[in-house]
Amino acid sequence: MRQLTFWFEFASTYSYLSAMRIEDMAEKAGVELVWKPFLLGPIFKSQGWNTSPFNLYPAKGNYMVRDIERMAQGRGIPFRLPESFPQNSLHAARLSLVGLHEGWGSIFIKEVYKAEFASGQDISNAETLSSTLKAAGASPNKALESAQSTEIKKNLRANTEEAMALGIFGAPSFTTPSGELFWGDDRLEQALEWSGR
Amino acid sequence: MRQLTFWFEFASTYSYLSAMRIEDMAEKAGVELVWKPFLLGPIFKSQGWNTSPFNLYPAKGNYMVRDIERMAQGRGIPFRLPESFPQNSLHAARLSLVGLHEGWGSIFIKEVYKAEFASGQDISNAETLSSTLKAAGASPNKALESAQSTEIKKNLRANTEEAMALGIFGAPSFTTPSGELFWGDDRLEQALEWSGR
Question: Which residues of A sit within 8 Å Cβ distance of B?
């Protein structure tokens, strides 16, 4: 079985583009998909950045917004940059790990991305998280409690450390069993092709 | 007539990928191509960088090499990172402006990129430049003299200033008459599509 690991960060606009299309594409290509949330914050910090490069380098940030607008428009999905960017994605990332264990992960992940980048909501907000959990068919109270467990916290830290060890420096990233790393939504097609090599 | 401006920097690996395919693609799409050399150095400096981000951020640099290897392999073109990177592209850029005025520009540009990223040669070297000029059908001595003219020096500075004013922060970049900016070889198809809008 061909396999592709999808490294995503909830604060990342380009991860939104991939999250909205990767399931269908993997299925069509006959590739098993592994969803892997991680945090870019510690990776950016190790590069001396205290926020998103889109904030540190305004020309890059301005470009990113227009680029995503065009890409989203071409794919028929909405896009709206939330007022506060980048958002705190810690709780959403932990919840996604709970969901991936319990079977409602991928629906929840897409609901979070839609809340954030289609509706411009704040995904660190408890109400937003509750309604995305409900939309994914999960019990908000139970899920929010599980997300605070030591196991889940360790799991997310381990993912971020693994990402760093693999040389991941941005999101989305894709890795194949043979050790190839791909960065960026525009490499998704190529990553799927390479997943069986 | 649809038009696309191709902003390239001779030190840029991803500009090599675009330079080797843009003419054919533009012709097929019925798009007039404007070649525009500029220097990334002053733009990087304004962002606080004293060298390529691929050197400042090793994870990004390692990734870039493998990414270009895969892309070049897929397109059937060779790739080799020169020992010294990024190279000093000043003289090649000025010479390309002479060539674009005199009609041998695009052949010279491709010859320089091949010398640098297919053969790993140093493009600031006078002999390398002479042999690429010859390969492009130009007279090396005459071209090297013209490249030192005040007009050509001003022209290159003006291109770099225009790039900055347009919000360009990397290479290759593509701009359309309607004011759209695209960054990266992976946006070339989309830029050609938008060139007529």
Answer: 47, 57, 59-60, 62-63, 66-67, 70, 74, 167-170, 180-184, 186-187, 190, 194
Does residue B49 carry a pLDDT above 90? Answer: no
Say if the Cβ atoms of B67 and A186 lie within 8 Å: no
Give the model confidence (pLDDT) of B124-150 as tens digits. Answer: 999 999 999 999 999 999 999 999 999
Query: Using CA atoms, how far apart are residues B125 and B111, in angstroms rounded to an integer?
Result: 14
Question: Of the candidates B18, B5, B37, which has an alpha carbon nearest to the alpha carbon of residue B177?
Answer: B5
- For the record, the structure tokens of A62 come out as 């301005």
Note the CATH architecture for domain B2-194. 3-Layer(aba) Sandwich (3.40)
Q: Per DSSP, what are the bridge partners of residue B33?
A: B4
Whether the pTM exceeds 0.90: the reply is yes
Quote the mean pLDDT of chain A: 96
Flag if B66 and A169 touch (Cβ within 8 Å): no
Residue B55 pLDDT > 90? no
What sign for the dihedral angle of Cα A19, A55, B178, B183? negative
Domain ranges of chain A: 2-194
Q: Is B48 left (phi over 0), alpha (psi -120 to 50) or beta?
A: left
Over the stretch B64-101, which tens digit does the pLDDT of each residue have?
Answer: 999 999 999 999 999 999 999 999 999 999 999 999 99
- Among chain B residues, the shortest Cα distance to A55 is held by B47
Q: Given an 8 Å threshold on Cβ–Cβ distance, is A184 in contact with B183?
A: no
Say which of B63, B168, B183 has its CB closest to residue A169. B63
**Is B63's CB within 8 Å of A186's CB?**
no
